[in-house]
């Protein structure tokens, strides 16, 4: 958990966001939806939805009945994931300005990971 305020943006700068609230530890998601949308895994953390200040156009995509995914319609950066009815929203760690003070603590949906790599003990991809 980090109490430091965070700021982030998409690749082109159209979407900018600030978070003024407690931020969870990070996780790396290997699910098929994150894999396809992000091109590999998705590193994110969560914060209360009301603590986000978002500017710019966000395209929200309902990838399922249970969640929507927010991205920049201009550059395509995948920035947000929100579960229906959840008080917290996940955001992309890669979009943040550094230093973040956030550490990744777990991998999730590992059974759905791409077959082209192995999850290393250090959290990174390991060479075969
Ligand atoms: Zn953009």
Automatic annotation (TrEMBL):
Q: Where is the CENP-V/GFA domain?
A: 6-118
Q: Which residues form a coiled coil?
A: none
Q: What GO molecular functions are on record for this protein?
A: carbon-sulfur lyase activity; metal ion binding
A Pfam family in this protein? GFA
Q: Does the keyword NAD apply?
A: no
Kindly state which keywords UniProt assigns to this record, in alphabetical order. Answer: Lyase, Metal-binding, Zinc
Entry similarity comment: Belongs to the Gfa family.
Name-wise, this protein is Uncharacterized conserved protein
Query: What organism does the UniProt record list as the source?
Result: Aliiruegeria lutimaris
């Amino acid at each position: 958990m980090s109490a430091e305020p965070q700021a982030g943006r998409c690749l082109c700068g159209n979407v900018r966001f600030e978070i003024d609230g407690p931020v969870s530890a990070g996780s790396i998601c290997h699910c098929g939806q994150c894999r396809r949308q992000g091109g590999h895994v998705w590193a994110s953390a969560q914060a209360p939805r009301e603590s986000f200040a978002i500017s710019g156009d966000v395209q929200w995509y309902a990838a399922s009945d249970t969640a929507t995914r927010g991205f920049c319609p201009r550059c395509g950066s995948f920035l947000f994931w929100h579960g229906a009815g959840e008080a917290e929203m996940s955001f992309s760690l890669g979009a943040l300005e550094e230093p973040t003070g956030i550490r990744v603590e777990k991998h999730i949906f590992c059974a759905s990971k791409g077959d082209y790599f192995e999850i290393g003990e250090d959290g990174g991809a390991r060479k075969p």
